[in-house]
Amino acid sequence: MSSSVRGANYHNDSLMIGFSDLRKLSNERPLVITGGRGVFVIDERGRDYIEAVSSFYCAALGFSEQELVEAAIRQMRALPFYPSASHRTVPVVMELAEKLQAIAPMPKARVAFATTGSEANDSLIKFLWYANGYSGKPRRRKVITRYGSYHGGTIAMTALGGGSALHRSFGIPMDDSIFVSHPTGAAPGEGEEAYVDRLAEEVRQAIEKAGPETVGAFFAEPISTAAGWSVPPKGYFQKIKKVCDEYGVRFFLDEVVTGFGRTGHMWGAQAFGVTPDCITSAKGMSSAYQPISAVLMSEDFYAGLEKGSDENGWFAHSGTYHAHPVPAAVALKTLEIYEKRQIVKHVQSLLPLWQKSIKVLEDHPLVATTRNFGLGGAVEFKGPVQNLSHI
């Protein structure tokens, strides 16, 4: 019998939900969402809520965009499933790859699809190891990331997320992970340029300490939600990339959250004026209506994959649902809508009001400061906050 038939008071005794208190979940019914309309979601009692964080930062076109629903239906009727592997694919997947290449922040990008942002990030590191192995650099396996970052839930991505409690509690192997400071703010009396130089020098020292011949990539979110949406200072990524280039370390950006307009540009890389070797994307690519993600790779990086493929006769990586035609069709329609409705320009038009609105919160006695960039932001509270129900 379904929980809806049993009644809204029936608790959950079968489903595990991540990022939840599992004991509480077993004894207390979770919030059950049954519908959506624009920026609102509706629970099983008919109450509506503004989904203020775009539901894990991804429902960019809201919860009732019929063009995306119709795109899924059309593809389901034409060809509901076929894997893109073994020298086979479907037209919509090729169209989506061409569209992503056209808007990528690096020229002539090659595109590989996956299902989730975690998977795309995991695949990118796997590709890095493969390319380095066939380019005479097999020891270049270590990846530099920042404390407080989040890159996904796989074993490898948990290792690259800057949360030591997670590393301990899941027993994550950490041999290939190197951490440096997140750009959360200069020290008292420290100028912005000096602060950037210090952060860049920290990366340099991390590479030297690990051994330059063992470091494969620097991997960062343009702005990290997990680290409180701290905005990197001017010139930060340029100087970090310069250090990476000096040591032959690849420069990767995790654009799972920041891609497709959230920063006021199509990509966070463009917002900060830097050209990465590779980026990963997901979430906003289909407005989360279907699960799909992608790795976008520069020509130079992709050459290493081709070299390995030439030696082996094939590239031994794929997934049953990678480039699933229905998510691909929805993603392609999503990108068409972004272009047709000029979503990036619309974001830019909203920024003055957004900046003013979030700044006003600093007048509240519990708020220490606010931060914002693009249509993202953070509110930092003063001291421990036990109950905000009255706010």
Q: How would you describe the overall organization of this protein?
A:
This protein is of the alpha/beta class and 391 residues long. The protein folds into two domains: 68-340, Type I PLP-dependent aspartate aminotransferase-like (Major domain) (Aspartate Aminotransferase, domain 2), CATH 3.40.640.10; 349-391, no CATH class. Helices cover 39% and strands 15% of the residues. The protein has helices at 3-6, 22-27, 54-57, 66-78, 91-103, 117-133, 155-160, 164-170, 192-210, 236-247, 268-271, 299-312, 325-340, 343-360, and strands spanning 33-37, 40-43, 48-50, 110-114, 142-146, 177-180, 215-220, 250-254, 278-281, 293-297, 367-373, 376-381. It has a seven-stranded mixed β-sheet, sandwiched between helices. Strands 1-2-3 form a three-stranded antiparallel β-sheet, with no helix packed on it. The chain has a two-stranded antiparallel sheet with strand order 11-12. Helix 4 packs antiparallel against helix 13 (325-340), helix 5 packs across helix 13 (325-340) and helix 9 runs parallel beside helix 10 (236-247). The model is unreliable at 1-6 and 386-391 (pLDDT under 50).
